[in-house]
Design goal:
Alpha-Beta Plaits; 2 domains; 137 residues; Dabb family protein; Dimeric_a/b-barrel; TAT_signal_bac_arc; alpha+beta; TAT_signal
C-alpha cells in the first residue's frame, strides 16, 4: 500500500466533503421553498366561553373536518403562543391558517358543503371571527 502524505490525505478529504455538500444542495434548496399556494386565508376565532377547554376542543374538532376539502394546499390550526409583546394579539382562542393556489380555489372552499356544514354546526361556539386574506407579492 502506498504511503500517503498528510497534505494529500487532507486534500482528498476536502474534495470528498465538497462533493458531498454539492450533492446535498438540491435537498437544502427544497427546505427553503415557499409553501404551495399563493392565496393565504387566516381566520381567528374568539369563543363565547373563552375559558372553556371543551368549547375550544369542539371548535378544533370542527376545523379538522375542513381538512378534507381538496382545494386546501396547506392547513394549520393554532392557538396563541407564549410570546408577549405590545404588538401581539393574544385574545383569540384558535386560529385557522390555510393556503390555496388562487382566489378561485378559496372561493370553492367557501361554498363547499363541508365548510357550510362546519359553519352551521360550530358557529354557536364563537363570539367573534376575524379573517385576514392575502396574496403573494
Amino acid at each position: 500500500m502506498k504511503k500517503q502524505s498528510r497534505r494529500s490525505f487532507l486534500g482528498a478529504g476536502t474534495i470528498l466533503s465538497v462533493a458531498g455538500a454539492l450533492a446535498a444542495l438540491p435537498l437544502l434548496g427544497s427546505a427553503f421553498k415557499k409553501p404551495k399556494g399563493n392565496f393565504v386565508h387566516h381566520v381567528y376565532f374568539w369563543l363565547h366561553n373563552p375559558d372553556s377547554e371543551a368549547d375550544k376542543a369542539k371548535l378544533i374538532e370542527g376545523l379538522q373536518t375542513l381538512k378534507k376539502i381538496k382545494e386546501i394546499r396547506l392547513a394549520r390550526i393554532g392557538q396563541p403562543a407564549s410570546t408577549n409583546r405590545d404588538v401581539i394579539e393574544r385574545g383569540y382562542a384558535v386560529s385557522w391558517l390555510l393556503f390555496f393556489d388562487n382566489l378561485d380555489e378559496q372561493e370553492v372552499y367557501q361554498k363547499h358543503p363541508i365548510h357550510l356544514k362546519f359553519v352551521e354546526n360550530y358557529s354557536h361556539l364563537w363570539s367573534k371571527v376575524i379573517v385576514y386574506d392575502s396574496v403573494d407579492v
